[in-house]
Amino acid sequence: MDLFEKFKQYRGPLGQYADIAHGYFAFPKLEGEVGSRMMFRGKEVIVWNINSYLGLANDPEIRKTDAEAAADWGMAYPMGARIMSGESVYHEQLEQELATFVGKERGLLLNFGFQGVVSLIDSLLSRHDAVVFDKDSHACIYDGVRLHLGKRFPYDHNDMESLDRQLQRATASVAETGGGILVITEGVFGMQGEQGKLKEIAAFKDKYDFRLLVDDAHGFGTLGATGAGAGEEQGVQDQIDLYFSTFAKSMASIGAFVAGDPSVIDYLRYNMRSQLFAKTLPMPIVIGNLKRLEMLRTRPELKEKLWRNVNMLQSGLRAAGFDLGKTSSCVTPVFMKGSPFEAGNLVMDMRENYNIFCSVVMYPMVPKDVILLRMIPTAAHSEEDVRLTIEAFSALSGKLKAGEYEKEIDVSVFA
Length: 415
Known about the structure:
Elements: H1 6-9, H2 18-21, E1 30-31, E2 37-40, E3 43-47, H3 60-73, H4 89-101, E4 106-110, H5 113-124, E5 130-134, H6 139-146, E6 151-155, H7 160-177, E7 181-186, H8 198-203, E8 211-215, H9 230-234, E9 242-246, E10 256-260, H10 262-271, H11 273-276, H12 283-298, H13 300-319, E11 332-337, H14 340-353, E12 356-357, E13 359-361, E14 370-375, H15 383-401
Parallel strand pairs: 3-12, 5-6, 5-7, 7-8, 8-9
Antiparallel strand pairs: 1-2, 2-3, 4-10, 9-10, 11-14, 13-14
């Protein structure tokens, strides 16, 4: 059989909808300057699916720094992987400032968030080790765990009794192999907005011997007194052995970092294949991220504005009768009952007639009778954005309950 023949018949769980989804539900084109309002198919929409939590993506100071850095250095310098020819004092400065900000001794820059987590897990674990992880973990954690040749123990989402059982199993496993245990969770689960139970997980260290890795992509810059993340928010930052975050959320940039004990970070620096064999982050990205980190540290009003908008949006939606699940973060999920067809028609109505743009999650990523509208408030949103959105959601919910979306999706809209 020709290797490629199967792709004519099977396009994947999401790809099977590509003919009607592409360019509208999937891979849509938002145009114009990044902000709370952008252009979609020729009209202005209020945008709720861009992770620029602190509004830095289009901040004038940030844009000036980025432009000056690009003019000074170009996008090529430094050339090569860091271990060969891609090192600079600015890369080292950013690593140390990030580590200090999150309360760790040493940090390591990574080129990308998703790839960073995958290769981090791969580098930390041998076939003798066991990994214990939350079942609702991000795809990057799953892909990293899939590379692990030893035992894997998933526990039910944020369920500490389930974690206890899996830690017992992992402990028995490494007693035979002589390996160690890595527990992985997220600081904030990005789809439904719940914080990982870091305090409760850390308490298990009194009972079991393990190390804790936290992917805090959505918590970094948004949670904690200083913005140092979910561990700071829950008072257990010192119990996190390896702290990871991407720059793609609060920093509105590219890249990622991991911070922890110097011996572990130095090991990763010389053994993470995705970093050893890849070009280093370009200098304008590094200089721009230094500026972004400075703003995280010195402009608390950005996080304060973010949380005013979060509280206004979430309290307003709840007052209007919407189910936001168990979110305890900026991530704002809105759960409705309806079929995939109804989800599609509702979102089209939302975008075409109410000028609201947010992410929709439908079957097979959620059960067939669930519609999940996922919203990301930012410091750039206005009170009017919030008010108009709540009014639109109330109208859309009424139509959904009245059965107005029970029809085939009208693909002529995409023409």
